[in-house]
Amino acid sequence: MKIYNTLTRQKEEFIPIEEGKLRMYVCGPTVYNLIHIGNARPMIVFDTFRRYMEYQGYQVNYVSNFTDVDDKIIKKAQEEGVDAGEISSRYIKECKQDMEAMNVRPATVHPLATQEIDGMIRMISTLIEKGYAYAAEDGTVYYRTGKFADYGKLSHKNLEDLQAGHREIQVTGDLKEDPFDFVLWKPKKEGEPAWESPWGEGRPGWHIECSVMSKKYLGETIDIHAGGEDLIFPHHENEIAQSEAASGKEFARYWMHNGFLNIDNQKMSKSRGNFFTVRDIAQKYELQVLRFFMLSAHYRSPLNFSADLMEAARNGLERIRTAAETLTRLMQAAKDAAMSAQEEALYQKAEEFRVKFENAMEDDCNTADAVSAVFELVKFINTNSSAEHTSAYLQKLYELLQTLCDVLGITIGQEEEILDAEIEKLIQERQDARKQKDFARADQIRDELAQKGILLKDTREGVTWKRA
């Protein structure tokens, strides 16, 4: 397996710390709202990487956190007049629902920042003892960026370059020794959640959270740390500085970062009106289509989201599923016999597409080429399967297609369909909820149906529905 390592800017052979085991940390979302499709990209691509490594026999310890204490969460809580914990709990639940609909497997552990405060206080104390951090008079604790000799090694910029090109991260203030020093601990503000610490009541800075959760669940040195390329600086750079200063050991051996997601060739933003949550997409498409679209490009490449490309992804997914359905139908009528010599030879040709698939995935998780190998297999299946073949041969083809699609997280088998009567019952429940002005429940039902591939349309004559 070759991985492009952001740290060294080159592809490197992946050599695990412990043979047959992979320790991987992926930065998760800050839970103050429904996740958007930009959040979905790292979830999907690194879930696919994990699936492939498990397919190759690795025992994967996959940790992905939820940042459940943050300025945005606090702001949302204040707007709604509720506790910050209520906001984070609500959106963790919603996020997990979206992840399930995208067929993203739960992490081995989904740690919450608020449950790891003691570990953060211990690491900050260690950094102070070693001279890498200092407490200001107001109770803020800062990291001494200039003391860490390797600062900038991930983003490949030294402090002088950063001072010239990233003035927005310089926060001046009399209490800071240097404008580039960053916050490890913030003093309490009125109405904000806070914890006791040696520096007074307060809460952790964002960067220290991931360092501590990674150390607790994976160890001081991990195999792979991953996330979106927007996290390279300052978040991942600061994680390295904290972790390596505290432990004296290398923090992560390989760094993987996915590229940005644009909407119709523009950066996604609410002000442009091109901001889409995963739930928005679920109103129009089965979320397996979104997953398939995300895997159609290499994870490090910028990815452009558009209606045309989503339609292409839907059609491509349909081609694969049609081939699977054809094999299922043929198997039911096929003669029950062992494979013939001719079929054995044919199946060996089919296995060549597995090799192509694996070669693509071994080359820095190139899902685009892996998908191409699946399409080649589909073409082969469509040309080389018929009612004349044995059930054993057809079954082997189906199992091969299913295995490769499972690695991609793509489902090809027929899911248990939601019955028409169940749909009508849920629609009626939604109508009742709307009459009672329980719009949250009404929206929840719409989302539930959308994720099952049932699209609703409100008309003057009532509610109509169709299968996606």
What's the topology here?
Blueprint: E1 2-5, E2 10-13, E3 21-26, H1 37-55, E4 59-64, H2 71-80, H3 84-101, H4 117-129, E5 133-135, E6 141-143, H5 159-165, E7 182-187, E8 202-204, H6 206-218, E9 222-228, H7 232-247, E10 252-258, E11 261-263, E12 266-267, H8 278-282, H9 287-294, E13 303-305, H10 307-333, H11 341-362, H12 367-383, H13 391-408, H14 420-435, H15 439-451, E14 454-459, E15 462-467
Parallel strand pairs: 3-4, 3-9, 9-10, 11-13
Antiparallel strand pairs: 1-2, 5-6, 6-7, 7-8, 11-12, 14-15
Helix pairs in contact: 2-3, 4-6, 4-7, 6-7, 9-10, 10-12, 10-13, 11-12, 11-13, 12-13, 14-15
Keywords:
alpha/beta; four-stranded parallel β-sheet; four-stranded antiparallel β-sheet; 468 residues; globular; 15 strands
Your description of this structure?
Helices cover 47% and strands 15% of the residues. Helix 2 packs across helix 3 and helix 14 runs antiparallel to helix 15. The chain is globular. 40% of the residues are buried. It is an alpha/beta fold and 468 residues long. The chain has 15 helices and 15 strands.
Strand content: 5-15%
Distance between the termini: 37 Å
State the strand order across the main sheet. 4-3-9-10
The helix fraction, in percent, is 40-55%
How many DSSP E strands?
15
The outline comes out as globular
Helix-strand pattern: EEEHEHHHEEHEEHEHEEEHHEHHHHHHEE
Query: Helical segment tally?
Result: 15
Question: What's the overall average pLDDT, rounded?
Answer: 92
Structural class: alpha/beta
Low-confidence stretches: none
Largest sheet: 4 strands, parallel
Rounded to an integer in angstroms, the radius of gyration calculated over CA atoms is 25 Å
